[in-house]
Write a structure and sequence with these properties.
Nuclear Transport Factor 2, Chain: A, 42% strand, eight-stranded mixed sheet, alpha+beta
């Protein structure tokens, strides 16, 4: 589900991206950006709309997945192009930890450091130790 969510986001198919979101999904951004956190698919879509006003292009490329049962940590590489400025960037900004319950995504939390994302994922659920390769293009 994480792979499908990221792929839909990258296509800007927001309907497909939120398809498996719980109606009360928690969208949790790091403290310095906590004002953009929210609850529910509408809050998440509002955040994405804001990003679309800032970037001509923004793509998330998963680099690694750590499956901890009902929680998956995803190491992300971001590629972006600033709207109007044309400034390009590539790098790791945030990594996500996605929580599932009953086949639904109930929480997505972002961390600046990959080690913090792994720690958050593995403390919630005993780690299986499975590290999956990124999806093939």
């Amino acid at each position: 589900m994480v792979r499908a969510f990221i792929a839909a986001y990258n296509r800007r198919d927001y309907d497909a991206a939120v398809e498996r979101f719980d109606p009360e999904i928690e969208w949790v951004l790091p403290e310095r950006q906590s004002s953009d956190s929210g609850r529910g698919p509408a809050d998440v879509r509002r955040f994405w709309d804001g990003l679309d006003n800032i970037f001509d292009e923004l793509r998330l490329d998963p680099q690694e997945f750590v499956d901890a049962g009902d929680v998956v940590a995803t190491r992300l590489l971001y590629h972006g192009l600033g709207k109007g400025s044309g400034i390009e960037f590539d790098g790791e900004l945030y990594h996500q930890v996605t929580t599932f319950r009953g086949g639904w995504i109930t929480r997505i939390e972002y961390f600046s450091q990959w080690s913090d994302a792994i720690a958050a994922a593995t403390k919630t659920s005993p780690a299986s130790g499975d590290v999956m390769p990124p999806p093939q293009p």
